[in-house]
Known about the structure:
The chain is of the alpha+beta class. The protein has helices spanning 24-51, 55-79, 84-93, 100-106, 149-153, 155-162, 197-205, 224-231, 233-247, 260-273, 286-290, 305-312, 317-325, 339-347, 361-365, 415-419, 455-465, 470-480, 482-489; strands at 115-118, 126-130, 142-144, 176-179, 188-190, 193-194, 213-215, 253-257, 291-294, 333-334, 337-338, 378-379, 389-391, 396-399, 411-412, 467-468. A 4-stranded parallel beta sheet has the order 7-1-8-9. It has a 3-stranded antiparallel beta sheet with strand order 3-2-4. A 3-stranded antiparallel beta sheet has the order 12-14-13, with no helix packed on it. Helix 4 runs parallel beside helix 7 (197-205) and helix 18 crosses helix 19. Residues 1-38 are annotated as: Disordered. It is an enzyme of class 2 (transferase).
Amino acid sequence: xxxxxxGSEPEKSSKPEKPRVDGEEDGDDDSEKxxxxxxxxxxxxxxxxLRRWNCVDSCCxxxxxICSIWWFLLFLFNAMPASFPQYVTEAITGPLPxxxxxxxxxxxxxxxxxxVFVPGIVTGGxxxxxxxxCAEGLFRKRLxxxxxxxxxxxxxxxxxxxxxxxxxxxxxSGIRIRPVSGLVAADYxxxxxxxxxxxxxxxxxIGYEEKNMHMAAYDWRISFQxxxxxxxxxxRIKSNIELMVATSGGRKVVVIPHSMGVLYFLHFMKxxxxxxxxxxxxxxxxxxxxxxxxxxxxxxxxxxxxxxTGLFSAEAKDIAVARAIAPGxxxxxxxxxxxxxxxxxxxxxxxxxxSMIPKGGDTIWGGFDWSPEEGYECVAKKMxxxxxxxxxxxGKVSLDKTKRLHYGRIISFxxxxxxxxxxxxxxxxxxxxxxxxxxxxxxxxxxxxxxHDMGIEGIKAVADYKVYTAGSLLDLLQFVAxxxxxxxxxxxxxxxxxxxxxxxxxxxxYWSNPLETK
Length: 518
């Protein structure tokens, strides 16, 4: 028989129960209410803080909106048909004219003669082949041309590598900068800034390609003859032209030089027909056998005045425009150095800039009181009236007779001196002046090449001469920068030949001057 077992009684607590006091239960309820109210208060406070809109939230929201709009527009751009931008443009401006290459193709023209491009100064790309430790990771990267990104990343290193030796005019020790090869060497100077790209594209439309187009790239920083000494560039151009003529069925090449490339190719034509070792040994009829035509674009055969201002003070026209657009930018202490002064130090080591110093002296460019432009009437696009000009009925603008412009005065220290009559200008010759020992600007001693050696007395002597013509410019540069002019005089000449049959004109320093060569 099973018997239900009686359950065990709960053990009594050994601790005596606390006696209850009347009203204690009500006190516990009040404290519980206060605790709950306090928790609700802090919870609402936290919720308000979470809902509060601060500056960080605004920035994040703004960045998010910009990114969303950007990705949306990018999606639309990639999704739209390729012809849509042209359709919109034609709807606004009307039908676009055909490019020149398409017009020539419709007329039945096709590729015939090989084409050789000769770029000018600063338009050809330069890349690094050997450099110092600061240029680590830049092997075969463009230091000149393209995005110019290294100017901002490592500016002092960039200036150091693009500068040449101030004595030899060649690469400094441990640095090798070489020109980029191929058509990409000078098709674009920078993104969106085309040089030869449009011409190459139009020639491609009528059948040209890389086998019958050649970019004669060269290091535009060094003197013309030194491109052959260091890189054998002139020999390469000669070989490439001979190869293009041979592979095109004997058709001669058409050469298109631009800017300083005009002077460079003029030097090449004299070099290729001159006997070795100074020349290429091609014979006196090499150009006639291999060159069909030459189409020069903006060739400075007689030099350009802004080359002098660039060498003298870096105050060329382009710099003046930059100063007018953004005054003070070039003098700002960017990246810990004076931008313009370092650029001046770099460009004054480039011997090629001296090839564009005005040639012919006062005979070509005019003197103190006259110039070839004297009496010339400019045709104005719009009729304007001013204090110095009067507009005629035929649209021509004649200069006021009371105020003459002296174009022969290439450099003048002061506008009043530039406009004054020669009899009213007191000048002191600077040629015999003694350069002082005190530095004109001690902060630039490690920046300027040899200009800091002039001193206060030398600068005062240059300024007291007041007006410089083409005939005195060479003396000015010789006084200011003798080392630079010593290098330049070894490779370039700026006079007019007395007798072209003289044997001295067979030297290469005369080959790029059309006034001293046959």
